[in-house]
């Protein structure tokens, strides 16, 4: 299992799309820093890759956002796609420990 | 740029363009500090939120856990420094599926108004 971290907004950077293009079913994707904007469920922009995330999640890929980064930016957990689970620094470390390697998209 | 402009801040017409999201780097904070400084000096100051900058207007922001100053709280000081001309680009909101109900300040304007704002400002500071 690989852990993919994305720290750039999906609205001004291709990092999230580039990540989703290669992610596997047993991988985990963690959105951090400005990456958390990519978890918003209401954005209909194609930049947001919503359908892609739903499909990957249905196939087994796990999706997470860092709670502190959402709170800082005024993103309520109810505004996020259902595919995303919120996690904290301890959860980040646990995912990193579980992963065979970490791919950072930035 | 108008070469006739004097050195007196009150004669300057300054537009600050905020194009980046509130955290992740220091641009948004530095832009706000510059805007407050311009206002405090008595310059005629306008602020334009565009592109990723519109994320700065979301509330409530609670940045304690990431050890950053609360940007929304800082931005709320703009009117106290006589920075009352706060503009928000409509297309940038639409692209992010945000509406006037999601943002805490500013007047929403279309592309034509944005172009006019840029064209009529004597100085533009971009953040």
Structure summarized in a few sentences:
Chain A has 106 residues and is of the alpha/beta class.
Give an overview of the whole structure.
- The complex is a heterodimer of chains A (106) and B (127).
- Chain A has 106 residues and is an alpha/beta fold.
- Chain A has one domain (2-105): Hypothetical Protein Ychn, Chain: A (3-Layer(aba) Sandwich), CATH 3.40.1260.10.
- Helix content of chain A is 29%, strand content 22%.
- Chain A is built from 4 helices and 5 strands; from the N terminus they run E-H-E-H-E-H-E-H-E.
- In chain A, strand 2, helix 2 (50-58) and strand 3 form a beta-alpha-beta unit.
- The longest helix of chain A has 10 residues, at 89-98.
- Chain A is globular, with a radius of gyration of 12 Å.
- Chain B is α/β, with parallel strands linked by helices and 127 residues long.
- Helices cover 28% and strands 19% of the residues of chain B.
- Chain B has a 5-stranded parallel beta sheet with strand order 4-3-2-1-5.
- In chain B, helix 3 (90-95) links the parallel strand 3 and strand 4.
- Chain B is globular, with a radius of gyration of 14 Å.
- The model of chain B has no long low-confidence stretch (mean pLDDT 90).
- The chains are: A alpha/beta (106), B alpha/beta (127).
- At the A-B interface, helix 3 of A face loops of B.
Helix and strand arrangement:
The complex is a heterodimer of chains A (106) and B (127).
Chain A: E1 2-6, H1 15-20, E2 28-31, H2 50-58, E3 62-66, H3 67-72, E4 84-87, H4 89-98, E5 101-105
Parallel strand pairs in A: 1-2, 1-5, 2-3, 3-4
Chain B: E1 13-18, H1 27-40, E2 44-49, H2 71-75, E3 85-89, H3 90-95, E4 107-109, H4 111-120, E5 123-126
């Amino acid at each position: 299992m690989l852990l993919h971290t994305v720290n750039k907004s999906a609205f001004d950077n291709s990092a999230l799309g580039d990540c989703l293009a290669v992610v596997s079913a047993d991988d985990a994707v963690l959105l951090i820093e400005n990456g958390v904007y990519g978890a918003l469920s209401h954005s209909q922009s194609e930049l947001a890759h919503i359908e892609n995330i739903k499909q990957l999640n249905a196939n087994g890929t796990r999706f997470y956002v860092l709670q502190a980064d959402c709170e800082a930016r005024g993103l309520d957990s109810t505004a996020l796609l259902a595919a995303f689970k919120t996690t904290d620094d301890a959860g980040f470390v646990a995912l990193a420990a579980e992963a065979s390697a970490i791919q950072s998209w930035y | 740029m108008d070469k006739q402009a004097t050195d007196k801040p009150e004669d300057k017409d300054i537009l600050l363009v905020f194009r980046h999201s509130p955290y992740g780097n220091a641009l948004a904070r530095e832009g706000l500090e510059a805007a407050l400084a311009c206002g405090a000096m008595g310059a005629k100051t306008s602020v334009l939120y565009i592109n990723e900058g519109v994320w700065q207007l979301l509330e409530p922001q609670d940045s304690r856990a990431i050890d950053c100053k609360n940007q929304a709280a800082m931005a709320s000081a703009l009117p106290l420094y006589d920075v009352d001309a706060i503009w928000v680009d409509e297309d940038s909101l639409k692209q992010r599926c945000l509406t006037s109900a999601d943002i805490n300040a500013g007047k929403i304007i279309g592309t034509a108004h944005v172009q006019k704002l840029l064209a009529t400002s004597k100085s533009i500071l971009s953040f």
